[in-house]
Amino acid sequence: MTTIVLAIVIGFAFGFVLDRVGASNPSVIGRMLNLTNLNLAKSILLAIGVGSVLMFAGQMLGLVDVGHMSVKAAYVGVFLGGLLLGAGWALAGFCPGTAVVALGAGRRDAVFYVAGGLLGAAAYMVTYPAWKASGLLDDIAGGKVTLGTVPGSKFDGLTGLPGDILGIVLGLGFIALAFALPERIVHRPAGQPQPAE
């Protein structure tokens, strides 16, 4: 029961932070994707970097149980799905997580995105045998592998590099990139109207 309560509390806190940084606002997402305001991208990079450093450092110190590490298999379909997700994110201004946050924050447009996502998931379940038969779901690059080898985990590493050190270095790289990125790459011409929020 404690695990469920903790998950709910963390979920609400995460959703609150996503809403506060603008991740549930399609206008903010649009400005990030057209490179006119990268504050959200900087927040995302910083969160990934800090999370990576904390997780891998925690594993090295024995504070995080490696047995809880979950690695998803690599296959061609996941790359195609990622392209579809990115296109949908750009068109709608929501990804699945931010749409749920927007729905919780009272945005009515998120209802249609969440409903469409549920219909898409149902369509995938119904057509799953065809996708499986197509070969798009067959493992590539060893399936469930990590970039580096993490001691105590059940997953193989693609390289002989120590996974914990590699995770910390990559996390620090994300943090550095978050601070190095400018606020915008593309500047709007003077007098051009800004989208409403």
UniProtKB/TrEMBL annotation:
The chain crosses the membrane at residues 6-23, 44-64, 76-103, 110-131, 165-182. Keywords: Membrane, Transmembrane, Transmembrane helix. This is YeeE/YedE thiosulfate transporter family protein.
